[in-house]
Write a structure and sequence with these properties.
It is a single chain. Helix content is 3%, strand content 48%. The protein has 307 residues and is an all-beta fold. The strands form five sheets. Strands 3, 6, 10, 13, 16, 17 and 18 form a seven-stranded mixed beta sheet that branches. A five-stranded mixed beta sheet has the order 1-2-24-21-22. It has a five-stranded antiparallel beta sheet with strand order 7-8-15-11-12, with no helix packed on it. The longest helix has 9 residues. The chain is globular and about 65 Å long.
Length: 307
Protein backbone atom coordinates (compact mmCIF):
# COMPACT_ATOMS: atom_id res chain seq x y z
CA UNK A 1 0.00 0.00 0.00
CA UNK A 2 1.42 3.38 -0.93
CA UNK A 3 1.18 6.66 0.93
CA UNK A 4 -1.90 8.55 -0.20
CA UNK A 5 -2.74 12.20 -0.68
CA UNK A 6 -5.08 12.55 2.27
CA UNK A 7 -5.38 11.37 5.85
CA UNK A 8 -8.44 9.46 6.99
CA UNK A 9 -9.00 10.12 10.66
CA UNK A 10 -11.05 8.09 13.09
CA UNK A 11 -13.96 6.62 11.17
CA UNK A 12 -17.52 6.70 12.54
CA UNK A 13 -18.32 3.71 14.68
CA UNK A 14 -19.96 0.78 12.95
CA UNK A 15 -23.75 0.45 13.30
CA UNK A 16 -24.66 -1.41 16.46
CA UNK A 17 -21.30 -0.85 18.17
CA UNK A 18 -21.72 0.62 21.66
CA UNK A 19 -19.99 3.97 22.16
CA UNK A 20 -17.37 4.15 24.89
CA UNK A 21 -16.83 7.35 26.83
CA UNK A 22 -13.21 8.47 26.50
CA UNK A 23 -11.35 9.99 29.45
CA UNK A 24 -9.58 13.27 28.68
CA UNK A 25 -6.18 11.59 28.30
CA UNK A 26 -7.56 8.98 25.90
CA UNK A 27 -9.51 11.59 23.96
CA UNK A 28 -6.25 13.46 23.44
CA UNK A 29 -4.63 10.30 22.11
CA UNK A 30 -7.53 9.83 19.70
CA UNK A 31 -7.07 13.35 18.37
CA UNK A 32 -3.38 12.69 17.77
CA UNK A 33 -3.69 9.37 15.97
CA UNK A 34 -4.47 9.11 12.28
CA UNK A 35 -4.62 6.49 9.56
CA UNK A 36 -3.05 7.13 6.18
CA UNK A 37 -5.21 5.68 3.41
CA UNK A 38 -4.99 5.80 -0.40
CA UNK A 39 -6.11 9.10 -1.87
CA UNK A 40 -8.82 9.29 -4.54
CA UNK A 41 -6.24 10.08 -7.21
CA UNK A 42 -4.27 6.87 -6.65
CA UNK A 43 -4.63 4.10 -9.20
CA UNK A 44 -4.46 0.41 -8.48
CA UNK A 45 -1.43 -1.52 -9.75
CA UNK A 46 -1.61 -2.85 -13.30
CA UNK A 47 -2.55 -6.54 -13.20
CA UNK A 48 -0.72 -8.45 -15.94
CA UNK A 49 -2.43 -11.77 -16.63
CA UNK A 50 -1.10 -12.88 -20.03
CA UNK A 51 1.67 -12.39 -22.57
CA UNK A 52 5.43 -12.21 -22.28
CA UNK A 53 6.86 -10.12 -19.46
CA UNK A 54 10.53 -9.55 -18.70
CA UNK A 55 12.27 -8.47 -15.54
CA UNK A 56 14.66 -6.15 -17.37
CA UNK A 57 18.09 -5.05 -16.10
CA UNK A 58 18.73 -1.50 -17.34
CA UNK A 59 22.06 0.37 -17.21
CA UNK A 60 22.46 4.07 -17.99
CA UNK A 61 26.14 4.77 -18.80
CA UNK A 62 25.62 8.50 -18.28
CA UNK A 63 24.34 8.30 -14.71
CA UNK A 64 26.10 4.94 -14.11
CA UNK A 65 22.94 3.61 -12.52
CA UNK A 66 21.51 0.10 -12.63
CA UNK A 67 17.75 -0.27 -12.50
CA UNK A 68 15.16 -3.03 -12.75
CA UNK A 69 12.03 -2.60 -14.83
CA UNK A 70 9.11 -4.72 -16.00
CA UNK A 71 8.89 -4.78 -19.79
CA UNK A 72 6.37 -6.42 -22.11
CA UNK A 73 7.00 -7.81 -25.56
CA UNK A 74 4.41 -5.39 -26.94
CA UNK A 75 4.81 -1.77 -27.95
CA UNK A 76 3.98 -0.36 -24.52
CA UNK A 77 6.56 1.38 -22.33
CA UNK A 78 8.48 -0.30 -19.54
CA UNK A 79 6.89 -0.13 -16.10
CA UNK A 80 8.18 0.25 -12.58
CA UNK A 81 7.78 -2.99 -10.64
CA UNK A 82 5.88 -1.09 -7.92
CA UNK A 83 3.16 -0.33 -10.49
CA UNK A 84 2.61 -3.95 -11.56
CA UNK A 85 1.13 -7.15 -10.14
CA UNK A 86 2.00 -10.30 -12.11
CA UNK A 87 -1.02 -12.60 -11.97
CA UNK A 88 -0.46 -16.37 -11.98
CA UNK A 89 -3.64 -18.08 -13.19
CA UNK A 90 -5.21 -21.37 -12.19
CA UNK A 91 -3.52 -23.09 -15.14
CA UNK A 92 -0.26 -22.89 -13.17
CA UNK A 93 -1.51 -25.25 -10.44
CA UNK A 94 0.43 -28.52 -10.78
CA UNK A 95 0.29 -31.74 -8.75
CA UNK A 96 3.72 -33.35 -8.75
CA UNK A 97 3.30 -36.93 -10.07
CA UNK A 98 6.42 -38.19 -8.29
CA UNK A 99 9.23 -36.99 -6.04
CA UNK A 100 11.19 -34.20 -7.73
CA UNK A 101 13.76 -32.98 -5.24
CA UNK A 102 14.22 -30.15 -4.51
CA UNK A 103 10.91 -29.03 -6.07
CA UNK A 104 8.74 -31.24 -3.90
CA UNK A 105 7.36 -34.70 -3.27
CA UNK A 106 4.74 -36.76 -5.06
CA UNK A 107 1.29 -35.28 -4.48
CA UNK A 108 2.58 -31.81 -3.57
CA UNK A 109 0.95 -28.81 -5.22
CA UNK A 110 3.27 -26.39 -7.00
CA UNK A 111 2.16 -23.33 -8.93
CA UNK A 112 4.48 -23.10 -11.95
CA UNK A 113 4.91 -20.29 -14.46
CA UNK A 114 6.84 -22.36 -17.03
CA UNK A 115 9.99 -21.51 -18.97
CA UNK A 116 8.10 -22.39 -22.17
CA UNK A 117 5.11 -20.35 -23.41
CA UNK A 118 1.64 -21.30 -22.21
CA UNK A 119 -1.19 -19.21 -23.73
CA UNK A 120 -3.12 -19.42 -20.45
CA UNK A 121 -0.31 -17.97 -18.32
CA UNK A 122 2.13 -15.10 -18.21
CA UNK A 123 5.55 -15.89 -19.67
CA UNK A 124 8.22 -14.34 -17.45
CA UNK A 125 11.82 -13.85 -18.56
CA UNK A 126 14.93 -12.17 -17.19
CA UNK A 127 16.67 -9.88 -19.66
CA UNK A 128 19.78 -7.74 -20.06
CA UNK A 129 18.77 -6.19 -23.38
CA UNK A 130 19.23 -2.69 -21.96
CA UNK A 131 22.84 -3.30 -20.91
CA UNK A 132 25.50 -2.67 -23.55
CA UNK A 133 27.96 -5.53 -24.13
CA UNK A 134 31.27 -4.65 -22.52
CA UNK A 135 29.71 -2.30 -19.95
CA UNK A 136 30.48 -4.79 -17.16
CA UNK A 137 33.20 -7.30 -16.42
CA UNK A 138 31.16 -10.39 -17.09
CA UNK A 139 27.44 -10.77 -16.43
CA UNK A 140 25.30 -8.67 -14.14
CA UNK A 141 24.13 -10.60 -11.10
CA UNK A 142 20.43 -10.58 -10.22
CA UNK A 143 20.02 -11.56 -6.57
CA UNK A 144 16.97 -12.43 -4.52
CA UNK A 145 17.62 -10.68 -1.20
CA UNK A 146 14.24 -11.03 0.54
CA UNK A 147 10.77 -12.41 0.04
CA UNK A 148 7.41 -12.54 1.77
CA UNK A 149 4.39 -14.66 1.06
CA UNK A 150 2.27 -17.55 2.29
CA UNK A 151 4.70 -20.17 0.93
CA UNK A 152 8.10 -20.61 -0.67
CA UNK A 153 9.44 -19.48 -4.04
CA UNK A 154 11.70 -21.38 -6.44
CA UNK A 155 13.34 -20.43 -9.74
CA UNK A 156 14.84 -23.08 -11.99
CA UNK A 157 15.47 -24.27 -15.52
CA UNK A 158 14.65 -27.77 -16.71
CA UNK A 159 17.66 -29.45 -18.35
CA UNK A 160 15.97 -32.74 -19.16
CA UNK A 161 13.61 -35.31 -17.62
CA UNK A 162 14.06 -35.00 -13.86
CA UNK A 163 17.03 -32.62 -14.21
CA UNK A 164 16.64 -29.21 -12.62
CA UNK A 165 19.08 -26.31 -12.43
CA UNK A 166 17.68 -24.53 -9.35
CA UNK A 167 18.88 -20.94 -9.01
CA UNK A 168 16.61 -19.69 -6.21
CA UNK A 169 14.92 -21.58 -3.39
CA UNK A 170 13.62 -19.76 -0.32
CA UNK A 171 13.31 -23.01 1.64
CA UNK A 172 16.99 -22.68 2.54
CA UNK A 173 17.12 -18.88 2.71
CA UNK A 174 18.30 -16.42 0.07
CA UNK A 175 22.06 -16.29 0.68
CA UNK A 176 23.05 -17.85 -2.65
CA UNK A 177 19.96 -17.15 -4.76
CA UNK A 178 21.43 -15.49 -7.86
CA UNK A 179 21.03 -15.51 -11.64
CA UNK A 180 23.69 -14.29 -14.07
CA UNK A 181 22.30 -11.85 -16.66
CA UNK A 182 24.68 -11.40 -19.63
CA UNK A 183 24.57 -7.92 -21.23
CA UNK A 184 22.20 -8.21 -24.18
CA UNK A 185 21.08 -11.63 -22.96
CA UNK A 186 17.58 -12.99 -22.40
CA UNK A 187 16.51 -16.21 -20.68
CA UNK A 188 13.37 -17.83 -19.33
CA UNK A 189 12.97 -19.82 -16.14
CA UNK A 190 10.31 -21.75 -14.27
CA UNK A 191 8.85 -19.61 -11.48
CA UNK A 192 7.41 -21.84 -8.76
CA UNK A 193 5.25 -21.07 -5.71
CA UNK A 194 4.29 -23.66 -3.12
CA UNK A 195 0.81 -22.26 -2.43
CA UNK A 196 -1.54 -19.57 -3.66
CA UNK A 197 -1.42 -16.05 -2.28
CA UNK A 198 0.43 -12.77 -2.62
CA UNK A 199 4.22 -12.95 -2.92
CA UNK A 200 6.67 -10.03 -2.83
CA UNK A 201 10.12 -10.89 -4.19
CA UNK A 202 12.90 -8.37 -3.53
CA UNK A 203 15.66 -8.32 -6.14
CA UNK A 204 18.86 -6.33 -6.55
CA UNK A 205 21.16 -6.18 -9.59
CA UNK A 206 24.90 -5.61 -9.39
CA UNK A 207 28.12 -5.88 -11.34
CA UNK A 208 31.66 -4.56 -11.87
CA UNK A 209 31.79 -1.69 -14.35
CA UNK A 210 34.44 -2.25 -17.03
CA UNK A 211 35.63 1.36 -17.35
CA UNK A 212 36.15 2.03 -13.64
CA UNK A 213 36.37 -1.37 -11.98
CA UNK A 214 33.83 -0.16 -9.46
CA UNK A 215 30.98 -2.21 -8.10
CA UNK A 216 27.57 -0.85 -9.09
CA UNK A 217 24.39 -1.95 -7.39
CA UNK A 218 20.75 -1.14 -8.05
CA UNK A 219 18.24 -0.22 -5.42
CA UNK A 220 16.19 -3.06 -3.97
CA UNK A 221 13.16 -3.68 -6.17
CA UNK A 222 10.03 -5.58 -5.14
CA UNK A 223 8.22 -7.69 -7.77
CA UNK A 224 4.71 -8.78 -6.76
CA UNK A 225 3.04 -12.02 -7.86
CA UNK A 226 -0.63 -12.77 -7.18
CA UNK A 227 -0.75 -16.58 -7.32
CA UNK A 228 -4.09 -18.29 -7.78
CA UNK A 229 -7.23 -16.92 -6.17
CA UNK A 230 -6.00 -13.61 -4.73
CA UNK A 231 -8.61 -10.81 -4.77
CA UNK A 232 -7.56 -7.68 -6.64
CA UNK A 233 -7.77 -5.56 -3.48
CA UNK A 234 -5.66 -7.72 -1.16
CA UNK A 235 -2.73 -5.32 -1.54
CA UNK A 236 -4.89 -2.37 -0.42
CA UNK A 237 -5.93 -3.11 3.19
CA UNK A 238 -7.87 -0.66 5.35
CA UNK A 239 -7.20 0.51 8.90
CA UNK A 240 -9.45 2.10 11.48
CA UNK A 241 -8.84 3.24 15.06
CA UNK A 242 -11.09 2.12 17.90
CA UNK A 243 -10.99 2.84 21.63
CA UNK A 244 -11.36 0.25 24.31
CA UNK A 245 -12.83 0.23 27.84
CA UNK A 246 -9.39 0.06 29.48
CA UNK A 247 -8.26 3.45 28.14
CA UNK A 248 -6.32 1.98 25.23
CA UNK A 249 -6.55 2.38 21.49
CA UNK A 250 -6.55 -0.40 18.93
CA UNK A 251 -5.84 -0.49 15.21
CA UNK A 252 -8.29 -2.71 13.38
CA UNK A 253 -7.01 -3.96 10.03
CA UNK A 254 -9.51 -5.05 7.37
CA UNK A 255 -8.10 -7.33 4.69
CA UNK A 256 -8.22 -10.75 3.11
CA UNK A 257 -8.73 -13.89 5.14
CA UNK A 258 -5.42 -15.70 5.61
CA UNK A 259 -3.29 -12.81 4.32
CA UNK A 260 -0.32 -11.29 6.14
CA UNK A 261 0.29 -7.56 6.52
CA UNK A 262 2.90 -5.23 7.98
CA UNK A 263 1.66 -2.28 10.05
CA UNK A 264 3.86 0.83 9.95
CA UNK A 265 3.86 3.99 12.08
CA UNK A 266 5.24 7.52 11.72
CA UNK A 267 5.05 10.86 13.47
CA UNK A 268 4.09 12.67 10.26
CA UNK A 269 1.99 11.64 7.28
CA UNK A 270 5.11 11.82 5.10
CA UNK A 271 7.21 9.49 7.25
CA UNK A 272 9.77 8.23 7.94
CA UNK A 273 7.84 5.01 8.51
CA UNK A 274 8.82 2.43 11.15
CA UNK A 275 7.69 -1.14 11.54
CA UNK A 276 5.11 -1.59 14.30
CA UNK A 277 3.77 -5.14 13.90
CA UNK A 278 3.25 -8.09 11.58
CA UNK A 279 -0.38 -9.15 11.39
CA UNK A 280 -2.08 -12.22 9.95
CA UNK A 281 -5.83 -12.31 9.43
CA UNK A 282 -6.93 -15.75 10.50
CA UNK A 283 -8.67 -18.00 7.94
CA UNK A 284 -12.38 -17.24 7.93
CA UNK A 285 -11.91 -13.82 9.52
CA UNK A 286 -12.06 -10.42 7.83
CA UNK A 287 -10.00 -8.32 10.24
CA UNK A 288 -7.31 -8.38 12.90
CA UNK A 289 -6.29 -6.04 15.71
CA UNK A 290 -3.08 -4.33 16.83
CA UNK A 291 -2.79 -2.49 20.16
CA UNK A 292 -1.49 1.09 20.06
CA UNK A 293 1.13 1.60 22.80
CA UNK A 294 -0.11 3.55 25.81
CA UNK A 295 2.94 5.81 25.76
CA UNK A 296 1.73 7.56 22.59
CA UNK A 297 2.14 11.25 23.35
CA UNK A 298 2.79 12.83 19.97
CA UNK A 299 0.99 12.75 16.65
CA UNK A 300 1.03 9.23 15.26
CA UNK A 301 0.06 7.98 11.81
CA UNK A 302 -0.41 4.38 10.73
CA UNK A 303 -0.62 2.47 7.47
CA UNK A 304 -0.55 -1.19 6.39
CA UNK A 305 0.82 -3.09 3.41
CA UNK A 306 0.40 -6.66 2.24
CA UNK A 307 3.36 -8.99 2.70
Amino acid sequence: MTLGNRNQWLRPRAPGRRPVAAPARLAGMLALCGVVMPGPSETAPIRVEEGEIDLEVVFDPGSRELELEVASDGSGPSMKPDDVVLVVGEAARTILPQDFPPLGNAGDTLWIVPQSPNPDLIYVGIAGDEVDPGAFEGPVELRLVAWSGPGDFLLWQSRGPGEFDVRMNTRDGVEDDVVDVPPGGHAHYNWGFTTNGLYRLTFVAGGIESDTGESIRSADVVVTFAVGSVPAGVDRPRLRIERRQNETLALVLEGMSGARYAVLEAETANGPWRHLADVRIEPGAAEAEVAIPRETRTARFFRAQAQ
